[in-house]
Amino acid sequence: MSVDYKLNNKTIISFTDELLDVNNLGTFKRTIKNQILYFREGQLEYREKNYNYPIIPKLQERSHLINKFITMDLETFKENGVLVPYAVSIYDGKNINNKFFYLSDYKNSTDMLINAIKSIMTRKYHCYKVYLHNFSNFDGIFLLDILNQITDKIEIKKNEGRFIDIKIHFNNDKYKLHFRDSLLMLPASLDKLAHQFNVESKSIFPYDFVNSQNLNYKGSVPDIKYFKNMSLNYYNKYSSEYKYIEWDMRKETEKYCHQDCKTLFDILELFFKQNFDITTVNGSKYPSLSSLAFANFRTKFLEDNIKIANIRGEVYTFIKQGYFGGAVDVYKPYGKKLYLYDVNSLYPYIMLNNKMPIGQPTLIDGNSKLIESILMNNNKFSFVEVDVYCPEDVKAPLLLHRLNTNTVAPTGTWTDIYSSIEIKRAIQLGYKFHYKKCVYFECDYIFTNYVKYYYHQKKNSDKYSSHYTISKLMLNSLYGRFGMNPNLDQHIITNREDLNKLIESSTIKDIIQLSNGKDLISYTPDNVMRDDLTDKFRNSLTSIPIAAAITAGARNYMSKFKNMENYTLYYSDTDSIVLDRPLPQEYVGDELGQFKLEYIFDEAVFLCPKVYGGINSDFELVRVKGLRNPVKFDLLKTLLKKGSSLQSPNEIWYKDISAGNIKIKDEIYTLSVSDSKRQLIYDPNNNFVDTKPIHLNEMNNF
User: Fold this and answer.
1) pLDDT in tens, 74-118
2) Rama region for 194: left / alpha / beta (φ>0; ψ in -120 to 50; rest)
3) With a threshold of 0.90, does the pTM exceed it?
4) CA-CA distance, 579 to 594, in Å (whole number)?
5) Whose CA is closest to 424, among 376, 368, 357?
6) How far apart are CA 303 and CA 101, in angstroms?
7) Where do the H-state alpha helices sit in 466-613?
8) Is 313 left (phi over 0), alpha (psi -120 to 50) or beta?
């Protein structure tokens, strides 16, 4: 039976009813568009909703490589706590000596930068990409307002506060240039990349010698203290080259800048060529490594029968709540004779060996038995909202939960969203569940060819070669692209009088004042999360269920080793563990998913996530996230006493886009034990000796 409800002769809703029990008129299903409502005895029992998202398309192979790019290097010195640009070099692969700009030739840094940018705003460089190494977090801070002063039309892409791409239009919109960060494409220092790609390396330079007073200095070679990490023998060799000639600041800066530009150009040229030879993908078309890896996958390795839905809207929002990263925890703070293991390519291992959610999703809301049957079906992959019970005796709890601003692995009871593979593993550990709502997919192996190809190339390449580097990058960079927010904030530079127009149609996230009466506005268009917005967001191709499936699979895998009998677990990170005994030899090796023994510590201290240290007769290892200056292991041990803390000077960089500068301040970093992830246990002498999971009691229905 079909029914149409009309208003003013216009149908506003239509539905179809179908009896499920001919002897009971109250038991039926009602279909309304893409939803099916199931009624029993006249009461809504549960609902089912089917979605129809666009499918992520394959990409066509290209016939020839396009390398239209320029490299740029910007050098600064520190004066009164502020970094001041004083030199710019630009290289297009042909004319190395014709693009150098030096502060003493101009009124100020702004004038120098304007002239440098204008020198490449020509028809010759139309559609070129301009790469700077660390543009997102360094050069872009200086250049954005400079670009704003030069042109009226700028398009900006940002992600997590970083500039991904800045496109400028000039000459009445006839031409354009893109400014990009090569560090987002090749995440390593220029010196390390030069060795990996076997190109001429960076030269050396006395960074700390430069100031506004000696830009035109000529004389003897600056003292060794102005060179970073230089041995006395190397310094003497370098100085001998200037035995009969003056050391000239301007000439040395120009030589250093040009070499940096050429080194970066040669690296990118080789990187793009080698990538094209494998996939026929033009690397310079993509602004980041993850987007390039995604294009490689879609061009060369995505099978025709694999349909990956471009997820957004309410399904994205639902799964996002259950999308967690790696588990990083301290279990025991101090131990002797400990073994630190890393997993070889954990995420690629999961991508190769686990089925991934594909096809169109279906939502089930309210039928616990049906949800459980779907969850247990190995041909389905689901994300389920559950009430959870975790017993207190679980050695290393598996399921993560956001508690205030922290992500913890608790015991007790709470409600959250988890993948089917996590729930099945958690049941083995003693968890219990009540099933409330789920989104499920078909599933299949989709990364087999991709992972096998790059892992084979990595395994059969010299560890210090470009082929090894590219393979490793491609293996580790693809999964994150699937987890990107499909509705990234938009960014625009506009006159302030136009701001009101934007406010009417969007949610304003941030306003940064620039010069010339303009602002950099970050905003989200209204209704951006609607499921039916397809064409508008064709460029934001993502599929969060795949990213969530990979990270969940990785946590499952690590859980097996964190909960082994007869082992004491001291610390875990996303792909590493510290144990009191060697792992069985069957788990150790160089293959995907096997463990590599990185260190054996005679003593080790673990204070909080990303803060630990170990020592033996041959070395001392201390890692403190966020602290630039190293801390000695013996000092780290003192923090095991309750209430103790350690203060260390730390250099902090403050980036001011509005002012177009970077300020450096020396501040005090206070290091102490954190109880944000697990409960800390102290002995009667106030020594930190153990931890236990945070216990939650959010419901009483178990």
Assistant:
1) 999 999 999 999 999 999 998 655 699 999 999 999 999 999 999
2) alpha
3) yes
4) 16
5) 376
6) 50
7) 466-482, 499-505, 544-562
8) left
